[in-house]
Design goal:
heterodimer; A: 225 residues; mainly alpha; MetI-like fold; 11 helices; 80% helix; B: 248 residues; alpha/beta; D-Maltodextrin-Binding Protein, domain 2; five-stranded mixed sheet; 10 helices; 12 strands
Chain lengths: 225, 248
């Protein structure tokens, strides 16, 4: 049914989304924690920067990333001086772009979850002489678990749905940067509508299943309550 | 004052009678010449050509799904023929408006030699080409590399642009050292505008015939017919040649 190149594109997409989500857990959690707890004036500007990819056209992000990561851009100069070459047209270039692109989908659900916990459980933990780190792992993490699940699912799904940024910095290399959405675009451009249909159907089914799982999960606690 | 406004109204009515608009889908490689031709066309005929730029394959899909384009200046000859065969274009309105020239280009001076030897040296990070499956300039690039017996050697360094504009963008931003693009993109008034280039000899690949066709929506639009005639005229041909295309 699906061709080898289609399967290759799907596997690449899954790998990209998986690694991106993992990295986002690591850098998104402290950002969300800080945003949820801080009273600093910087909360507003930082929250706005995190949310930017929600409203920015992917072409803007792709354009800036292409220039910044290129051989004459600041990021490109840095990666070159580290002996890593330049990032555009590489898998890791896509990972960097996806981390930016999906950042709000990780940070915002986490921030909501952290804010919902409130001060009280943290104060109780402190009176029991739990260290801040201990509090985070034994109190905050369990309480915010639904937030982590939502954030993970949304980040993964949003990265799977990425197209414009990948098109602008990917260079459409099979097995390296040709993800499923670009593969579909290719099929359409080449007038291979049957192939485009098959892969599109897979994407549609996946996206629906992810959202369905999330909405079913979200309804559950209410029924229990 | 009153007389003046009457005069203006009369003038407006006079131009309004003849001026029409035509929506034109233009292959990305023809962007610059199309803009210049549209400006001259407006000056000489009063008609307005509204231009959209993109890849020919995308335009095909859009046209067959009801896009409001009235004329297509394609990057190939097969898409206009197919549109005509499938009843989306006006029969008999097809003609070759330009013959494309392929060029190996780098944004760096003295990087590409006049014989394209740099390809054999392998001293470049990436080679940007348009998607050979969909873009005629990409297909011509692959054909050229095959003829040079270099396809297998350089294939690993390919990065693909979605259309010829993006292919050029990868090179002009310095992300790829080299790229096969359309001469029209880096050429003006008989000279390469910057960087270094090898103009690929025409015998290295099948000719890149770029055909235009009037689409069904433009069948009764006088501006579409006028633009078709204008493209065949001396003024437009001079502009087309200036960008490095040949004329048939």
């Amino acid at each position: 049914m699906l061709t080898d190149t289609d399967l290759q594109a799907i596997w690449l997409t899954v790998r990209l989304a998986g690694i991106t989500t993992l990295i986002l857990f690591i850098i998104g959690t402290p950002i969300a924690w800080w945003l949820a707890r801080t009273r600093s004036w910087w909360k507003g500007p930082c929250g706005a920067v995190v949310a930017l990819p929600l409203v920015l056209p992917p072409s803007v992000l792709g354009f800036y990333l292409l220039l910044a990561m290129g051989p004459n851009g600041p990021v490109g100069q840095l990666t070159q001086s580290l002996g890593l070459g330049t990032l555009p047209f590489t898998f890791w270039g896509l990972v960097v772009a996806s981390v930016f692109y999906s950042l709000p989908f990780m940070v915002q659900p986490l921030q909501n979850a952290f804010e919902a916990i409130g001060e009280r459980p943290l104060e109780v933990a402190a009176t029991l002489r739990a260290s801040p780190l201990d509090t985070f792992f034994s109190v905050v993490l369990p309480l915010a678990r639904p937030g982590f699940v939502t954030a993970g699912i949304l980040s993964f799904a949003h990265t799977v749905g990425e197209f414009g940024v990948v098109l602008m910095i990917g260079g459409n290399i099979p097995g390296v940067t040709r993800v499923a959405s670009v593969q579909i675009y290719d099929h359409v451009e080449a007038m291979e509508y049957a192939d485009a249909h098959r892969l599109s159907a897979v994407m549609l089914a996946f996206s629906f299943a992810v959202l369905l799982a999330m909405y079913l999960r979200r309804d559950k606690p209410r029924r229990e309550a | 004052m009153k007389r003046l406004s009457v005069l203006f109204t009369a003038l407006l009515a006079a131009t309004g009678l003849h001026a029409a608009e035509v929506q034109v889908a233009v292959a990305a490689n023809f962007t610059e010449p199309a803009k210049q031709i549209a400006a001259e066309f407006a000056r000489d005929t009063g008609h307005l050509a509204k231009l959209s730029f993109g890849s020919t394959g995308k335009f095909y899909t859009q046209v067959t799904n009801g896009a409001p384009f009235e004329m297509l200046l394609a990057a190939d000859d097969s898409t206009p023929a197919r549109l005509e065969r499938e009843g989306h274009a006006v029969a008999g309105s097809r003609f070759t408006y330009a013959v494309g020239t392929l060029v190996l280009w780098s944004s760096k001076a003295n990087f590409v030699d006049a014989g394209g030897e740099v390809l054999k040296s392998g001293r470049f990070n990436k080679l940007s080409i348009a998607n050979p499956k969909t873009a005629p300039y990409g297909a011509a690039a692959v054909e050229t590399l095959k003829k040079l017996n270099l396809l297998e050697a350089v294939q690993a360094k390919f990065v693909q642009g979605e259309n010829i504009s993006q292919t050029l963008q990868f090179v002009s931003t310095g992300n790829a050292d080299l790229g096969f693009v359309a001469l029209s993109q880096v050429f003006q008034d008989g000279r390469i505008t910057g960087g270094s280039a090898w103009i690929v000899p025409a015998e290295m690949h099948d000719p890149i015939l770029q055909d235009a066709v009037i689409l069904k929506r433009g069948e009764n639009n006088p501006a579409a017919g006028a633009l078709q005639a204008y493209l065949k005229g001396d003024k437009a041909r001079a502009i087309i040649r200036r960008f490095g295309y040949a004329i048939r």
